[in-house]
Amino acid sequence: MICRRPFRPRAARVALVLMDVDGVLTDGRLGLGENGREARSWHVRDGSGIVLARRAGLRTGFLSGRGDAGVRRRARELGVDEVHLRARDKGAVYGEMVRRLGLDHKDVCYIGDDLVDLPVLSRVGVPVAVADAHPEVRRRVPFVTSAPGGRGAVREVIDALLQAQGRMREILSWFEGGAR
C-alpha cells in the first residue's frame, strides 16, 4: 500500500471497515442477465479478509450508491454488520451510521474508488483508495492500495489494519492449530 502519511497510528484505533461495493469489492463491471439482474464478480480473498476482520472483532460495512439482492446476499454470506445500498448521499448515510454506532470518525476506515466517495473519505480516520480509483480520489487520500478494486484491494487493507493492530500473529495461529 502506498502511504503518504503514517498508517500504523491511524489504523491502530479502527473499529469499523466500511467499503464501497462496485469498483472496490468488484472490478466495477456490471453484467445484466436476461432477467434484468445485475451480475458482479467478487474476489474470494476480499471475502476472506472481511470474515477475518469480523472474527478479529472489527465491524464491517458496505456503503454503496447501487446494490441489489445479490449484494445483500453476499453481505449475509460474509456476515457484514452494516449494509447501506442505493445511498444517494453517502456522506449523510455515513454520518447517521457513525452517530448510531457511537463511533468517532477516527475509528473508521473507508475504502472507495470514485468521486461520490469523497464526502466519506474526507471524514474518516483511515481513508483508502483502490489502485485504479479515479485520479482525483487517489490524489486526495493518504493511502492507496497496490491492488485494483475487485482484485484483492480490500484484503490488502484488512491485512494492513490487522498487522497495525498487532493481531496477525493471533490470526495466523487460527490456521496453524492454535487458539480458535
How many β-strand stretches?
A: 9
Structural domain tally:
1
Q: What is the molecular shape?
A: globular
H/E topology pattern: EHEEEHEHEHEHEHEHH
Query: In CATH, what is the homologous superfamily?
Result: HAD superfamily/HAD-like
CATH architectural category: 3-Layer(aba) Sandwich
> Low-confidence parts lasting 5 or more residues at pLDDT below 50?
none
Biggest sheet, strands in spatial order?
Answer: 1-9-8-7-2-5-6
**Main beta sheet:** 7 strands, mixed
Q: Determine and state the CATH class.
A: Alpha Beta
pLDDT averaged residue by residue: 92
Distance between the termini: 29 Å
**Estimated structural class:** alpha/beta
Proportion of helical residues: 25-40%
Q: What count of helical segments does DSSP give?
A: 8
CATH topology: Rossmann fold
Radius of gyration: 15 Å
Query: What percent strand?
Result: 15-25%
Report on the structure:
With 180 residues, this protein is of the alpha/beta class. The protein has a single domain (6-175), classed as Rossmann fold. 38% of the residues lie in helices and 16% in strands. It is built from eight helices and nine strands. It has helices at 8-11, 44-55, 69-78, 90-101, 118-121, 135-140, 153-164, 168-175; strands at residues 2-3, 16-19, 31-32, 38-39, 59-63, 82-84, 108-112, 126-129, 143-144. The strands form two sheets. The chain has a seven-stranded mixed β-sheet, sandwiched between helices. Strands 3-4 form a two-stranded antiparallel ribbon. It is globular. The protein starts with a strand and ends in a 5-residue tail after the last helix. The mean pLDDT is 92.
